[in-house]
Amino acid sequence: MSNTYKSAGVDKEEGYQTVSKIKKAVSETHNENVLNGIGSFGAFYQLSGYKNPVLVSGTDGVGTKLRIALDVKKYDTVGIDCFAMCANDILCHGAKPLFFLDYLACGKLDSDIAAEIVGGIAVACKETGTALIGGETAEMPGMYQIGDYDVAGFCVGVVEKDEIIDGSKIKEDQSIIGLASSGFHSNGFSLVRKIFQDFNQDFEGKPLWETLLVPTKLYQNDISKISEKVKLSGIAHITGGGLIENVPRIMPDGLSAVIEKSKINVPSVMKELMRKGGITEDEMFGTFNMGVGMVVICDQSDAQTVLDLIPESSLIGKVEKGEEKIILK
Length: 329
What we know:
By secondary structure, the protein is an alpha+beta fold. Helix content is 33%, strand content 24%.
């Protein structure tokens, strides 16, 4: 029997099947700016309608949240996570996502699983008007175990140069508003998995994994709605490291984000993790979003407008003079 690529563990036919199964979902995310279809060596996207455009890019993955999805065999939400982690990052600079590319790696490709993962990415792209214009599926026996997958993505957005949000316009006495998260999003799951070892255990009337796999919230539509009415001075995506590490990234020197923990609605699953794991409050706030997935900063006079526009938002603090970039009290 002669050696073949398939005998080495790589099934090209399964790759072709994957492309076939995702083609419709991917093509539905395309618009008039996408100049070619799936299958080319590179993807083409034309810019139009901008005076002085600046491209903003971001890349990220899903982390070990993927382990839970693989263990319970639910693959349709992690693609949303992958997209959201990238798109929410570039949103912090006022950028509208234009297009997205994904990278899926595995030990042995199953076209049905791959199609579910990519299908989740396509769902998120459609919700935000983003084109899924390319990707790569890598079958790597010997690098990954059979049944294991990893997914990462790359997002490119655009913003007018004079509309870039970078925190430089944050001022004393401005309001800090938290936009609610949908749960853990895609951060801290190594600790989550250490404490919650039985994903099938009951939590609030359903298997725990259903709560853990709720996908990362997409903030594009919320930020667009706010930006139509209010000039935002700063936006922070609350990912790994929580408020403690992410809010300081946008704070100018000499100013401090003073946040009241009592104003934050911490999800019940995070309270349960803290209780069961004996985790300190400081560790929780330095690891998880604690119910705040995005922070926006605006003038006090605009705060109520933001709160009215986004029902799942709350006034959690204000900007004060100080050397510490963030103070949680």
